[in-house]
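Supplementary Methods. Inverse-folding protocol.

Structures were first reduced to a discrete structure-token string of length 297. This string, shown here, constituted the complete conditioning input.
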């Protein structure tokens, strides 16, 4: 068992269609997804040297060491054998159970199996105001000016943000003897027998196994996003509510309610209002709540 660690990841997908297109999609019953998702293009790795040709073996070893530290090597050598049967939840968190299979780097026919869970948080809608306030650290003035223009002229531009937490202390791992193909088939059969809709099986690189899990999660998000977007639309969460999607207004209202019951969430409420550029709009209500918490009239 490895030492307890936690890593947080997030992935963002751009929803760039107009409100008119969204309403048209509603009228069509969401038979088509109105979202366009953008991803970074994954570069191809250059093939390594052919060992049957004359060459310097030290160069080959050096290149292999470089590959072992290149996250794209892990990404490109991840194979998802069994994808979850269900999509990520639209209005709640999702537990994704994984079975990660990898060959030990220095032992023949020694296969490591890791089993655990990825907690995927509820997808969050964010706006240009949000990423102007939160996501531009390190960017220059021109980038900020462009986002300011988007905030004023492209108010229908939304981002559906996904995030997950990987709890390493919850990982169960063991080493078995056999070929990668043989063990993979055995694990696939075991998972199929359990009939778990959010279970996945994958093979990957042993020393970069967490990168392989991230690749799995990205694939699951890609498959889930159209359904999540359609469900938001069917529940009228993308409708314009005084300049913001209804889903964001609903989240703010919930934060006010939760804070009234649990004053410890006051900072969460303040942060959310600042992130979405809503503090001035809700300022009077916010300070009224602060006075209520302090017992002041």
């Amino acid at each position: 068992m490895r030492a307890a660690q936690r890593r947080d990841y997030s992935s963002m997908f751009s929803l760039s269609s107009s409100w008119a297109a969204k309403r048209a999609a509603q009228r069509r019953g969401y038979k088509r997804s109105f979202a366009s998702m953008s991803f970074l293009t994954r570069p191809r790795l250059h093939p390594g040297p052919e060992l049957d040709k004359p060459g310097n073996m030290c160069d080959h070893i050096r290149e292999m060491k470089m590959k072992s530290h290149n996250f794209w090597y892990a990404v490109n050598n991840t194979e998802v054998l069994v994808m979850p049967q269900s999509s990520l939840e639209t209005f709640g968190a999702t537990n994704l159970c994984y079975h990660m299979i990898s060959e030990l780097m220095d032992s023949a026919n020694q296969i490591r199996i890791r089993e655990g869970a990825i907690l995927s948080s509820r997808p969050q809608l964010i706006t240009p105001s949000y990423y102007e306030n939160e996501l531009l650290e390190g960017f220059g003035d021109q980038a900020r000016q462009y986002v300011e223009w988007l905030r004023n002229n492209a108010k229908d531009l939304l981002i559906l943000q996904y995030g997950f937490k990987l709890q390493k202390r919850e990982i169960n791992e063991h080493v078995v003897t056999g070929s990668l193909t043989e063990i993979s088939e055995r694990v696939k059969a075991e998972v199929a027998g359990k009939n778990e809709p959010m279970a996945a099986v994958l093979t990957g690189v042993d020393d970069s196994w967490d990168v392989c899990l991230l690749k799995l999660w990205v694939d699951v998000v890609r498959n889930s996003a159209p359904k999540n977007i359609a469900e938001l639309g069917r529940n009228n969460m993308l409708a314009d509510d005084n300049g913001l999607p209804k889903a964001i207004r609903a989240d703010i209202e919930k934060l006010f309610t939760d804070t009234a019951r649990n004053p410890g969430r006051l900072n969460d409420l303040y942060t959310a209002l600042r992130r979405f550029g809503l503090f001035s709009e809700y300022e009077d209500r916010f300070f009224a709540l602060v006075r209520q918490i302090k017992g002041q009239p």
